[in-house]
Amino acid sequence: MQWTELVVFTALFLLVTVLGFMAARWQAGDTLDHLDEWGLGGRKFGSWITWFLVGGDLYTAYTFVAVPALVFGSGALGFYALPYTVVLYPIVFLPLVRMWSVSRVHGYVTPADFVRGRYGSHWLALLIAVTGIVATMPYIALQLVGLEAVLRTMGLNGSGILGHLPLFIAFVILALYTYQSGLRAPALIAFVKDTLIYIVILVAVIYLPTQFGGWGAIADAAQAKFDASEAASDGVLLNANNQLQYATLALGSALALFLYPHSLTGILASRGRNVIKRNMVALPAYSLLLGLLALLGFVAISAGVKPITNQATGRPDTNTIVPVLFDMEFPDWFAGIAFAAIAIGALVPAAIMSIAAANLWTRNIYKEYLKKDASPAQEAKQAKLASLVVKFGAVAFIVFVDPQFSIDLQLIGGVMILQTLPAVAIALYTRWFHLWGLIAGWIAGMGYGMWLLYNIGNPAIGKAHFAGSALPLGKLSLFGWHPFGGSTVQIYVGAVAVVANLLVAVVVTLIARKFRAFNGTDETQADDYHVDEDSDRVKPVAAH
């Protein structure tokens, strides 16, 4: 048991707990018994709050733990997170501003609300809502992977139910202050989380290289490790085997990230279009932090870090690479600060994700199918209860399922959420896709993507199916035809699945338009809004 680390960790954890409960009175409206207030913070967050909230939402504990762990194990491939976060913001700049405008006019809380209004189809909205909930659940669970890595390093986490007791306690506290304060809790705590993360990473990338001969010596040590490896896809540089995977994973991840409901929750909570624009310009500062963080994977190689063995599975837990590195190289008091930063970095996105999933359940399932006349207070109550279920479902997932398998499921979640691209993002600009084309495309992309993922195995960890998202092109099959033969080049499954989705959507749309099939009711003219850029007032104008 690392007592100094534990005391510092506990003190900072208690600080954010107090902030979480105090947040209920921070910029509070008349009541929290309304989904706009509890689930979107009253839709009045300014530039600084939105920057910390969205940054805290997108750059999670899993990112801070898993990116350097991937660099430690695979080398250059782990740096895919950098181009993906660089190209992300130009791609989503205009769509997010448009989504904010439409949602503000119509009172939309979720992406499924927009789809319901855009196409007048509760069935298509249901598909989007269920996809968002299912894709978000393993993402929440993965925040616990980062938290457990820290607890395991401090000697607090063992095997069995009792070994997970610290995790249960942390999430009970999270559940209580999120239930009381809603989105305001993670928004306020994000200030502490990001400040700690910046301090820890800047100290680490300045101090640690001096202990191992500088960055040149660190790179040489990494090169020596990968030269001795038999794997074809690792190395300090990309090679013919993983270049396509790197590019498609970066682009696919960029397209997927703001399709997740929790990403849109932070955007819809902002008070104006100009707030969003300023944030899309400023958020790449986190990418610089991420690049510095990724380099710690190479530092861990030079330091000779050995991951802690997971007692439940008997295999090394590579997610402990960064915590073990900090434990080895820093004084206990600073390691405690670093561990608190990672843990708080798990709680902030977990809270936002659970709120987003609860909003989907409340608005697009509960109110649509179970209680159409639900009052605002009933909606807020339902969302609070649903957020509890989601959180503890994620805890149960970690306790009873191999965490390595949960990481694979997060990659599956990315493949899944990409299938909402035509109905959510493209529909912001055009209704050319027919309602039945969107539904058929979703079915095709989801089915084909899951089938491809099912056939990806990894004998090294004893898994025959769902063992990753890198598809060897030699396994790509179109009705029994293998267009790439025995190629060993790999590609991200999500890219293949979303292309299949779009192709089917186009074909079915052409057929449906030819036969003039019913195409829903267009309640939302997404392009028919006039916005006063100075006041951010949005009003609909006459539809075409």
UniProtKB/TrEMBL annotation:
<feature type="transmembrane region" description="Helical">
    <location>
        <begin position="491"/>
        <end position="512"/>
    </location>
</feature>
<dbReference type="InterPro" id="IPR038377">
    <property type="entry name" value="Na/Glc_symporter_sf"/>
</dbReference>
<keyword id="KW-1133">Transmembrane helix</keyword>
<feature type="transmembrane region" description="Helical">
    <location>
        <begin position="333"/>
        <end position="362"/>
    </location>
</feature>
<feature type="transmembrane region" description="Helical">
    <location>
        <begin position="246"/>
        <end position="269"/>
    </location>
</feature>
<protein>
    <submittedName>
        <fullName>Monocarboxylate uptake permease MctP</fullName>
    </submittedName>
</protein>
<feature type="transmembrane region" description="Helical">
    <location>
        <begin position="123"/>
        <end position="141"/>
    </location>
</feature>
<keyword id="KW-0812">Transmembrane</keyword>
<feature type="transmembrane region" description="Helical">
    <location>
        <begin position="161"/>
        <end position="179"/>
    </location>
</feature>
<feature type="transmembrane region" description="Helical">
    <location>
        <begin position="45"/>
        <end position="71"/>
    </location>
</feature>
<feature type="transmembrane region" description="Helical">
    <location>
        <begin position="407"/>
        <end position="428"/>
    </location>
</feature>
<keyword id="KW-0472">Membrane</keyword>
<feature type="transmembrane region" description="Helical">
    <location>
        <begin position="6"/>
        <end position="24"/>
    </location>
</feature>
<comment type="similarity">
    <text>Belongs to the sodium:solute symporter (SSF) (TC 2.A.21) family.</text>
</comment>
<feature type="transmembrane region" description="Helical">
    <location>
        <begin position="281"/>
        <end position="305"/>
    </location>
</feature>
<dbReference type="InterPro" id="IPR001734">
    <property type="entry name" value="Na/solute_symporter"/>
</dbReference>
<feature type="transmembrane region" description="Helical">
    <location>
        <begin position="435"/>
        <end position="454"/>
    </location>
</feature>
<feature type="transmembrane region" description="Helical">
    <location>
        <begin position="77"/>
        <end position="97"/>
    </location>
</feature>
<feature type="transmembrane region" description="Helical">
    <location>
        <begin position="383"/>
        <end position="401"/>
    </location>
</feature>
<dbReference type="InterPro" id="IPR050277">
    <property type="entry name" value="Sodium:Solute_Symporter"/>
</dbReference>
<keyword id="KW-0813">Transport</keyword>
<feature type="transmembrane region" description="Helical">
    <location>
        <begin position="186"/>
        <end position="208"/>
    </location>
</feature>
